[in-house]
Specification:
The protein is an alpha/beta fold. Helices cover 49% and strands 16% of the residues. The strands form 3 sheets. Strands 8-7-6-9-11-10 form a 6-stranded mixed sheet, with helices on both faces.
Length: 518
């Protein structure tokens, strides 16, 4: 297919997109999956300054919300018609901090036209690391990634595919500007206090990162890029022989930049290559960067244009090509908490069989509901590591509050909910607070996990009967006839008794469960 300019155009169905909803700017990156590798086609960036609108009580001002929603509506127009499985959007620090984040998140998702996930601080750091690797390589070197954003600073250290250390600190250039440079004036005293306060915030993690001894320190995103651009334009640093980088700077040149900022009183007019949109936040960014250099004893930093959005894009391609890192996360978590994997595997296999029988009649996407059901089945007994009593409650807590690389906070909340609802009374209020489509998917996963768990209540390795589940749907009512042979039911009366009770739980939500053939 050729466009009007005679260039090769991209088929709509082949596009992929990642949206990074940062505290300062929103970024949209469009790409294409080429043989399991992501190729970037277009980038769109808008300064939204969402963090500026975050009040002390945790609410977001109407003006900041309006800026964000207007931007997302424009992004949504660009993404119109794309497959939801090929779009991934993530909200970061300001979304995490907002007290009314849930309602705002729903508004934002509607404007964008696609669901938005809120990522935890450690997940944000991991995605930054992935984005740097995507853009710059460094596969064989132990790297430390530093990303100073509008609302937080992320640190990630590792070698190869996954970082070994991740940390998110509530140190960002928006609150630092408001706190230390509210009128734009910079002097020796307020700059020193800004650096010292940032160092105090890093004190709890600095030693761990120092002792890991990174071979290369990589700055990511706007602050590092702006500092490198100014220093290069001023001619204060010699060139670097490191390949695949956008820029670099040393401790000496960073300290010289500090001195120039103080000497000018904060007037950045003489700083070449500094974008106008960065001028009012530049002093705060430099102060935080100096605190990072001091705390982690860094002498030089190279700069990559890879960031969280490229990390999202890279992982999206992996998921589309059956390289979903979340599977490894779930298995690692199950191993850590000594889950009986033979039993978990049996329940997961039966849950998969039930899902295959229901996914078309019930009208759910395999990519989301099927994975949710599989992970919940593998982790449904994780709470036993705490106590047998109320183990499903413990399981919900462990899943919802743990660091699960690859999972957003929203995904962890949904996964924990399915694990919690694996047994006990089913009530509609258990699923309140979720968007309608997500609520339907949650209920479906819960219903199927409950049946799969009951079918393996004996924990026996003997195979289940040759049964043929048949699913149906009538409006919002979900139904399934399990097709369990009569002779097997007579030989397994305890299972049948549990399933008979389960029929009542399904009915409480308006759904139908039958044991035999309809």
């Amino acid at each position: 297919m050729v466009d009007q300019n005679g260039e090769q155009a991209v088929e709509r169905g082949a596009e992929i997109a990642a949206i990074d909803l940062g505290s300062n700017s929103f970024h949209l990156v469009l790409g294409r999956d080429e043989g399991g590798q992501a190729r970037v086609l277009d980038r769109i960036k808008e300064r939204v300054s969402l963090a500026e609108g975050l009040r002390a009580n945790g609410t977001i001002t109407p003006a900041a919300k309006a800026r964000a929603l207007d931007c997302l509506a424009r992004f949504g127009q660009r993404l119109q018609g794309m497959d939801p499985n090929r779009v991934r959007a993530a909200g970061t620090n300001t979304f995490r901090s907002a007290r009314d984040g849930g309602a705002f998140l729903e508004q934002a998702s509607l404007q964008l036209g696609f669901p938005i996930d809120i990522v935890s601080g450690s997940e944000e750091a991991r995605l930054v690391y992935t984005g740097v690797r995507f853009s710059s390589g460094f596969y064989k070197r132990k790297i430390l990634c530093v990303d100073i954003g509008g609302g937080s600073t992320e640190l990630a250290l590792g070698r190869g595919r996954s970082p070994r250390l991740t940390e998110s600190l509530r140190v960002g250039h928006v609150p630092w500007t408001e706190r230390f440079f509210p009128d734009g004036r910079v002097d020796t005293d307020n700059f020193a206090v800004a650096v010292r306060t940032a160092r105090l915030a890093m004190r709890s993690v600095a030693r761990t990162f120092r002792e890991a001894e990174a071979e290369l320190v990589v700055g990511s995103s706007g602050t590092a890029l702006a500092i490198a651009a100014v220093i290069e334009a001023m001619g204060w640093d010699r060139g670097s022989d490191t390949v695949n980088i956008t820029g670099h700077f040393s401790r000496g040149s960073l300290e010289r930049l500090r001195d120039e900022l103080i000497a000018s009183g904060g007037n950045t007019a003489g700083f070449k290559e500094l974008a106008d949109s960065r001028r009012d936040r530049f002093a705060a960014g430099v102060a935080i960067m100096l605190a990072v250099f001091d705390s982690l004893r860094i002498e030089s930093m190279v700069v990559s244009d890879g960031a969280l959005r490229e990390g999202l894009l890279s992982e999206l391609v992996g998921r589309l090509n059956q390289r979903d890192g979340r599977d490894a996360t779930v298995l690692a978590k199950a191993e850590r908490f000594s889950v009986d994997m033979e039993q978990a595997g049996r329940v997961a296999s039966t849950a998969a069989l039930l899902f295959e029988a229901t996914r078309k009649p019930w009208g759910f996407r395999r990519a989301r509901v099927g994975l949710l059901l599989r992970w919940a089945a593998l982790l449904h007994e994780i709470g036993l590591s705490v106590s047998h009593d109320a183990y499903r409650r413990h399981g919900n807590y462990l899943i919802a509050n743990a660091d699960l690389p690859g999972f957003s906070r929203n995904e962890q909340e949904r996964l924990g909910k399915v694990v919690y609802c694996q047994r006990g009374r089913l009530r509609p209020e258990l699923f309140e607070g979720f968007r309608k489509d997500l609520r339907e998917e949650l209920v479906a996963a819960v219903l199927l996990l409950r049946v799969a768990r009951i079918m393996h209540r004996s924990r026996s390795s003997r195979p289940l009967p040759a049964w043929g589940p048949v699913a149906s749907r009538d409006g919002e009512q979900l139904g399934i006839a399990l097709g369990i042979p009569e002779d097997w039911r007579r030989a397994h009366r305890l299972v049948v008794a549990d399933l008979e009770l389960e029929r009542g739980q399904w009915a409480a939500l308006g759904h139908v469960l039958e044991l035999g053939v309809r």
